Amino acid sequence: MRLETLREFVMVAKHLNITKAAQELYLSQPSLSSRMSALEKELGYPLLDRSRNRIALTSAGAVLLDYAQRIIELHDEALEKSQRAARLSPTVKVATIAPSSPHYRMLPEHESMPFSFVDLDLNTAAIDALRQGLIDVAVESDYSIVDALREEGDAIGITYRRIGEDACFLAMMAGNPLARKERLVRRDLNGQTVIINSGFHFDRWSKMVQSLLGEDVKLGFRINALDSISNLSFVDLGSSIYICGDKASQELLRQREDVRVFDEVDGRKLTHPVALVCRTGDLQDDESPVRRFVDECLRRVPATEPRRHALSEQGR
């Protein structure tokens, strides 16, 4: 039984006149009459009583009419709402800043929330890409733990939603005196110079590193622009240390015999907070696909106790 046939039957039941129903359906009277007869033959019982001068519904026809009207109403409602959802659900553009991060596993997979990855190079900051409309969401460091950067985000309409933490590591050339130590403590890092990959990230990542290690640790920072992370397989770090939360970078540096990598300070794993970063306006719009995407991501985040990230807060 086709939906179109049910619509035709409902129209006949409305007029109880084949000719009038055919006119409203833009069909010929013989064609509509033939279709009603075919429907009755398909079901195996009469729906219309044609024994009088005027057509009437049989008891079976009355029952079918009730269900047919509900089926048509549900079909039309489903079509309207799904079309509306399609208009409101364009593909959400997610930046692949750190695709090796385990947090990408909590991104929604079902078709109702389509998303695509957009590659950002090392010289493009996520907040700039968000403001330019190049992306809708980024999974990156939660810079809002730094008061100045949180205020900056508020001022330009960028919001951070914490989803967890990723491991950090410190790397240095094997000739660096610190490389000979079995373990690092915070006071070892006093006076050290930290390499930041890109000038675009210099201010933000330097503030993040300072916050993670504690404001009482005196650090210097310098830029060592890399065209690609793969350059870490041979770049000379000099007397500086390299601090990063990217797993791919860590793996490249661990493969080098002339580099020593630490992932603990003061006997504790060094981690940095990770967040979904998006435009504040998108989160304030209940019908925004970005809002629904972020809400679904947050729903998938395991409920764990929040950790403090600054080593100075964790103890020495």
UniProtKB/TrEMBL annotation:
tRNA processing as UniProt keyword: no
DNA-binding in keyword set: yes
Listed GO MF terms: DNA binding; DNA-binding transcription factor activity
Sequence similarity: Belongs to the LysR transcriptional regulatory family.
Source species, domain of life: Bacteria
Keywords, in A-Z order: DNA-binding, Transcription, Transcription regulation
GO cellular component, one term: protein-DNA complex
Name the record gives this protein: LysR family transcriptional regulator
SUPFAM superfamilies per the UniProt record, alphabetical: Periplasmic binding protein-like II, Winged helix' DNA-binding domain
Species for this entry: Eggerthella guodeyinii
